[in-house]
């Protein structure tokens, strides 16, 4: 997990890490035979992770301030306002020499102050 605001969001780290591990564990162990409509990204993640194991997958999670979230939201969604969470799937074949055999699934950006102000639960937004 990455924190761009230093220790400011320290109180959220353990909660976010626990939720992220639970989410990845679900993706690794969920029943492949269940009948459901998965989004393309869910299907791609399941295909990729079912072949490997949990220690070979990585999701980058960033805890950021509202102003940085606003800039990212404007750049990628054209909305000039902060939001609670943004997620980006790792592009297929994206070069990541630092990964050394691990599989990057993507990035999740969370704005804890925004989430708290709107009385949302950061753990639920991790699985977004």
Question: Strands, helices and their partners?
Answer:
Blueprint: E1 2-3, H1 10-29, H2 40-51, E2 57-63, H3 66-77, E3 85-89, E4 103-110, H4 112-117, H5 122-126
Parallel strand pairs: 1-2, 2-4
Antiparallel strand pairs: 3-4
Order of helices and strands: EHHEHEEHH
Q: What is the CA-based Rg, rounded?
A: 15 Å
**Dominant shape:** globular
Second-tier CATH architecture: 3-Layer(aba) Sandwich
Low-confidence stretches: 32-36, 44-52
Terminal CA distance:
16 Å
Any idea how many domains?
1
- Named CATH topology: Collagenase (Catalytic Domain)
Number of strands: 4
Q: With helices defined by DSSP (H or I, 4 residues minimum), what is the helix count?
A: 5
Task: Provide the spatial order of strands within the biggest beta sheet.
Answer: 1-2-4-3
> Given the helix and strand composition, which structural class is it?
alpha/beta
Q: Please describe the biggest sheet, giving its number of strands, its sense, and whether it closes into a barrel.
A: 4 strands, mixed
Mean pLDDT across the residues is 75
What is the CATH top level name? Alpha Beta
Estimate the helix proportion, in percent: 40-55%
Strand percent estimate: 15-25%
């Amino acid at each position: 997990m990455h924190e761009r605001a230093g220790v400011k969001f320290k109180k959220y780290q353990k909660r976010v890490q626990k939720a992220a591990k639970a989410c990845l564990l679900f993706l690794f162990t969920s029943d492949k035979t269940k009948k459901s409509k998965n989004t393309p990204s869910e299907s791609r993640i399941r295909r990729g992770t079912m072949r490997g194991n949990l220690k070979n997958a990585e999701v980058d999670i960033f805890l950021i301030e509202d102003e940085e979230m606003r800039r990212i939201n404007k750049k990628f969604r054209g909305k000039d306002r902060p939001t609670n969470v943004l997620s980006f799937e790792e592009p297929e074949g994206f070069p990541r020499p630092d990964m050394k055999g691990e599989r990057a699934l993507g990035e999740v950006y969370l704005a804890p102050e925004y989430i708290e102000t709107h009385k949302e639960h950061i753990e639920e937004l991790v699985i977004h």
